[in-house]
Design goal:
Blueprint lengths: L1 H17 L5 H11 L4 H11 L5 H26 L4 H4 L18 H16 L5 H13 L12 H4 L1
Helix pairs in contact: 3-4, 4-6, 6-7
């Protein structure tokens, strides 16, 4: 386990040293901020609740977000209690404000998975381009390693 943690720390330091730059950093900060408090998916859910045609999907998405919050952020984060990497990897500097909660499981991933799965599975008549975009956003919202907020091995979990 120690070897895995060392590898994880080395990868994060490598990302910090070789991938961070003044052009990409603002982009990754913006992408990661879209997932803060599930705001992107909460706004999407609110828009789904307005028209009668999508209200059912909006209610299921809201239920999925609430379940994700309760299971992921309140229960599992406190049970697993994984420390954020910038506290244990010497020299790692986060790009964004340090969150106070534990790092695993990711709240960003939980809310993205909850809502994206609802949208992807229930909206069978949805335009294929939109479905593809939802899938890509859900997969890419997790670039928080770039910001130093999650360990690389978290993605393997």
């Amino acid at each position: 386990m120690e070897a895995l943690l060392n590898l994880d720390g080395n990868i994060l330091i490598w990302i910090q040293e070789f991938l961070r730059n003044p052009i990409l950093d603002p982009f990754f900060k913006m992408i990661t901020s879209l997932g803060n408090a599930g705001i992107f998916w909460i706004i999407a859910t609110i828009f789904l609740l307005i028209p009668k045609r999508t209200r059912r999907v909006g209610m299921i998405s809201a239920f999925a977000l609430i379940c994700s919050l309760l299971i992921n952020n309140i229960l599992l984060k406190n049970l697993v209690a994984r420390t954020r990497p910038y506290y244990v990897v010497e020299g790692l500097i986060p790009l964004i404000k340090k969150p106070v909660e534990f790092s695993f499981p990711s709240g960003h991933a939980g809310s993205s998975l909850a809502s994206a799965c609802v949208l992807y599975r229930i909206q069978a008549d949805m335009n294929q381009k939109l479905r593809s975009g939802i899938r890509r956003y859900a997969n890419r919202v997790e670039r928080r390693e770039q910001c130093g907020n999650h360990s690389v091995c978290r993605c393997i979990n």
